Amino acid sequence: MTARVRFAPSPTGLLHVGNARIAIASYLLARRHGGRFLLRLDDTDRERSKPEYAEAIPRDLEWLGIRGDEVFRQSDRLDRYAAAAEALKRAGRLYPCFESEVELRAKREARLARGRAPVYDRAMLKLTPEQCAAAEAGGKRPYWRFLLSDRAVEWKDLVLGPRHVKLPAVSDPVLIRADGTPLYTFTSAVGDLETAVTHVIRGEDHVTNTGVQIDLLAALGGDPSRLHFAHLPLLTDTEGGKLSKRLDGLSLRSLRNDGVEPLAIASYLAQLGTSDDPELLALDELAERFDPARFSPSPARFDMRQLLALNRRVLHDLPFAAVGERLPPGATETFWLAVRGNLDLLSEARGWWDVVAGTIVPPVIEGECEFLRTALELLPSEPWDERVWTTWTGALREATGRKGRALFHPLRLALTGEERGPELAALLPLMGRARAGQRLEIAAC
Predict the structure, then answer these.
(1) Counting CB atoms within 10 angstroms of each CB, which of 67, 111, 272, 383 has the fewest?
(2) d(CA 400, CA 351)
(3) Phi-psi region for residue 166, left (φ > 0), alpha (ψ -120 to 50) or beta?
(4) pTM of the model
(5) Rounded to an integer, what distance in angstroms lies between the CA atom of residue 108 and that of residue 298?
(6) What angle do CA 72, 30, 50 make, to 5 degrees?
(7) Chain center to CA of 190
(8) Helix H segments across 91-177?
(9) Other beta carbons within 10 Å of 403
(10) What does the alpha-carbon distance between residue 423 and residue 111 come to, in Å, rounded to a whole number?
(11) Tens of pLDDT along 18-76?
């Protein structure tokens, strides 16, 4: 059986590290088994789905190196859901409901007050056809619930191991709104069945929904045993708290704009939650070793420091040809080779370009005025080459008797305004004598 793995985001926002992790895992599983990766946009929520997000999701995945072998939208398949709904109605598994949200809330509160679980009581199943007709004649439009089986659903999860959901403890889910819009649970099951999906990877928060979906698949005539589920534990922050998926700084678009490289993101997210130490691997290498069973059933902590450490390694090895168009205008290969080993993010190159080619205001360095004036006096004449730093600091050492930090730290602060950074031997020729001299004069005042 050819593996067919789907990733089904809702275009209600940009991809963030949480669902990007699901996308990467799904893609790697498909490639590991020589199968197909299906990108399905679950866009039937007309109020929340936005065209700009539907366009952004495939673009962001392509930036990671991921393309769908098959791409489609749920909103293009409304006739399939209508046909499936009619089949469920004929089988007595889809029933109309007229209760308002206020009435349902009152029922839930009453059950909780009696110490009972707030499970829907199926009161609408008792309505006669005449009562339904009267409700509609009075202006009410029904929404439709799926009648769950009176059983426990079991499956062997590829990450969590044996799992089961007791359906009598779950409310019959609403599959179709009063306006006729099919909801995610319904469209997902129909879509998985009709596109012959074999594997679904998603977050652990969907475990109960998986039990419902398995029951729904069976009611639609499918064979749930052909569908394999893997539920990844949710990501937390470094303190163990919930990682908000709405945090703008963790969207792929934001990380990309900040200068995080796709290789670093894919490598980190593909291995996050396993016992492996994160290492830089291309997608095909990640696919060769991918196994859902390697993920721990415990929550995984997303640590930006680990991601930046990987990104630093990517940037350190990137040739100028790979980044030239993303550097500040005028930046040269010599500049890139000088600064790349000190960057966590590509966006930080902007600051170092300002250091060598722009205007910065260095701090006035208390207690170092005499030393910096001496440094200015001994600053070599141009033309400068890569030996100017050694020549200059050698002369300063002879004139002042300074060495080590006492010699180099005031010069770094005066010339760059920073405590640390790229080798000044590489930066100084890029600055030029006029710029360096002006900064030494300001810092010495």
Answers:
(1) 383
(2) 31
(3) beta
(4) 0.90
(5) 32
(6) 30
(7) 27
(8) 101-113, 129-137
(9) 11
(10) 70
(11) 999 999 999 999 999 999 999 999 998 888 899 999 999 999 999 999 999 999 999 99
